[in-house]
Design goal:
Layout (H helix, E strand, L loop, with lengths): L4 E6 L6 H15 L6 E6 L5 H7 L5 E5 L16 H6 L4 E4 L2 H7 L3 H13 L3 E6 L3 H5 L3 H13 L9 E4 L13 H19 L1 H4 L3 E4 L5 H8 L6 E4 L6 H9 L3
Parallel strand pairs: 1-2, 1-8, 2-3, 3-4, 4-5, 5-6, 6-7
Amino acid sequence: MSRRCFVTGNWKMNKTVAEATALVRELRGLVSMVRDRVEVAVAPPFTALYPVAKALEDSNIALAAQTCHAEPSGAFTGEVSAPMLKEVGCSWVILGHSERRQFFGETDATVNRKIAATVKAGLLPIICVGETLQEREANKTLEVVTTQVKGALAGFAANPAFVIAYEPVWAIGTGKTATSRQAQEVHAHIRQVVGGLWGQDTAAQVRIQYGGSVKGDNAAELLGQPDIDGALVGGASLKAADFAAIIKARA
C-alpha cells in the first residue's frame, strides 16, 4: 500500500516570531512543487503559531504544535490546550517527544491522555517513541518501543490517520543516526505492533516517521526504506534550504 511521505519540522525552543515567519515564507517557495507527493508540516514554538499560520495561508505546509495539555481548560499555569491549538490553525500535535519525557516527566499514560485530548479537539497526533542508548545497548529497543506504542494507543479504535515517529533518543541532536537497516527494523516492528492492536489493514496505512539527526545527505536512504514514511526533523528544519533538501529527497 502506498503511504504519502510526511515530513515534519520540530523547531523546539527556537525562533522569534520574526524569524519564524521569515523561515516559512522562504520555505513556501522551496517546497511548493512537492504538494502532491510529500506532506509537510512545521512545529514552531507556541508564541509563533498564529503568525506562522497566517504566513502559511494558501500553502501546502501544515501547522503542528510541539505538545498540549490533556485538559481542554483549567488552572494549569503555563500550559496550552488542544482546543486553543485548533483555534490558531494547527492540524497536528507532536506528543511524547523524548525531550518531553526526559525533562518534563511525560509517561506513556500522560501521552495517552494527550492523544485523547488532541483527537477530541479535531487534531491529529504525531506520537513519538524510542529508546535510550542504554536501552539499545541492553538489546531492549523492541521491548521499549512496543511498550510505548501499546501505552499510547491503549483504548483507541483503529485510526489510520494517526502518525507514529520513531526517534532513537541516542540519535537526537547528537549527529549520530541509526543506519537505514536499524531504522527499518524498528519501523517494521512498530507496524507489526500496530497490526496486533488495530489489524494489518490499518497498520498498512499508518505512517511511521523517522526522527534522529535526519539531514539532506542521509534522507534519501532513510526515506527509501519500505516502512519509513517520512521524517520528524529537528535541527535541520531550522534552515529553509536544509529542510527543503530533506523534503525533496523523497519527492
